[in-house]
Write a structure and sequence with these properties.
Blueprint (H helix, E strand, L loop, with lengths): L5 H28 L6 H27 L14 H29 L15 H31 L4 H15 L6 H18 L2 H24 L2 H28 L25 H21 L4
Length: 304
């Protein structure tokens, strides 16, 4: 990569984020106007294509503008440490989800009610499998390549703490659902730390996949199984994840594995996070994301 000023790299990232938003918004919109959303299976394929393109086009833009071509998909030897770290992070994700549900509960008591995320109902096993691929597999691959593979690495010359926090912030605003900002920001930080600690994009992809697959299964069970069985299954699955997370934590302590240690180098010079707001294109991208969130929120709350 050429030695480029931080402001230039942030502007490129901001432009890439605008490309991401445009593709993710307007490609499904165009497909909907063509009537492709009348067939749910076909619509899922359109959404898969949209998500893949919305990540790959910004990647190509970053490569072109910065001459940046990181080697990400090398073969890596898997040891017991990587699955242990994934399960440890999953237990943390469960904790973040609980904190988020407490916050949403408090907002609900104050009269601010967000709609519950639900899956589109389908009895077709092929459609359900495609739905799972769209929800769990595609984001794990393409979002990791874009956010951790390119954006995080592009910011690393200015310090790991700066790169982790900035990439997590970008990851958060890419997910334009205000009710999920807390767990998504936390996930962005953990995924970045896991990638930097292991230097293996496959591990962060695995964690991203496990988390999305867990969310898909939980939503499916809530919608398609009676309330008692659904709650029992949820309690069982959460107990399994937390138990595995505790076992993973014990192993990691014994093996002296500390994922967050990638942020603890006090000798490393880190740029201030305020630098992000000095990039006009990235600020514009953040405003576009905010407008998307606001419009969706008004629709969800019945304001418009």
């Amino acid at each position: 990569m050429k030695k480029l000023p931080l402001k230039y790299r942030l502007n490129v990232i901001g432009a890439a984020l605008i490309v991401f938003l445009c593709v993710r918004t307007y490609l499904p919109m165009a497909a909907s106007r063509m009537g492709l959303n009348d067939n749910f299976t076909l619509w899922l394929l359109v959404c898969i294509l949209s998500l893949a393109l919305s990540c790959m086009m910004p990647i190509m833009f970053i490569e072109k503008m910065c001459g940046f071509h990181p080697v990400l998909l090398k073969k890596k030897k898997i040891t017991i440490a990587e699955p242990a770290m994934v399960m440890h992070c999953m237990a943390v994700f469960i904790g973040l989800a609980i904190v988020n549900s407490i916050v949403l509960g408090a907002l609900q008591k104050a009269g601010i009610v967000f709609p519950v995320q639900q899956l589109h109902e389908t009895d077709n096993i092929i459609t359900l499998l495609i739905y799972f691929i769209f929800t769990a597999v595609v984001p794990a691959i393409f979002e990791e390549l874009l956010v951790r593979g390119y954006i995080l690495n592009l910011l690393l010359p200015n310090g790991r703490r700066f790169a982790v926090i900035t990439s997590a912030f970008i990851f958060m605003i890419m997910h334009t659902q205000v009710q999920s900002f807390i767990p998504v920001m936390g996930a962005g930080i953990l995924l970045a730390c896991l990638y930097l600690y292991t230097n293996n994009i496959y591990v962060s992809m695995a964690l991203h996949f496990v988390n999305n697959a867990y969310s898909f299964i939980m939503m499916y069970m809530q919608q398609n199984v009676n309330a008692v069985s659904s709650v029992s299954f949820a309690a069982f699955l959460i107990a399994v994840i937390i138990s595995c997370g505790i076992a993973a934590e014990m192993y990691m302590r014994k093996a002296d594995i500390h994922i967050m240690s990638v942020l603890s180098d006090k000798t490393e010079k880190n740029a201030s996070f305020a630098q992000v707001f000095r990039s006009p294109v990235l600020v514009l991208a953040a405003i576009c994301c905010a407008l998307t969130v606001a419009s969706q929120l008004m629709v969800d709350l019945g304001i418009m």
